[in-house]
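Model it.
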Amino acid sequence: MGRIAGPYGVRGWVRVARPADGLAACRRWWIEGKRWTVVQTRPHSGSLLAQLEGLESREAARDLKGKAVAVERAELPEPEAGIYYHADLVGAEVVNTEGAVLGTVVALASNGAHEVMTLSGERTRLVPWVPAVVKRVDLARRRIEVDWGKDW
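Modeled.
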């Protein structure tokens, strides 16, 4: 959901780099296997500042630098229609409009312009996550239909 970029100020606040949408609304974070209660958050220059209960000094906040921030699934808000959490898509089978299996989603990442799915199968494929390509997502069947050639 994000990564601790370092301390902010002298009272134990941390700065989270590239926070995922919805992280600010989550009240319980997991950092290196430890559960933290979030007292408050606020956006700051493209990052997220957070005050964590029990973290009261700059030195203590510095110890979390570089650590990943995770949340339990129950903490996440339900996504809007047509919006998906990456974790829900990983493991889904991807087929093209002709029914040919292209592979299984192993990761999603941003290339700056849009998201890209990495598929594993007979070979690794990179498929853009854009409306012109992604035609249908069936989370219940764990299946994604795309307009993408088998030989591309």
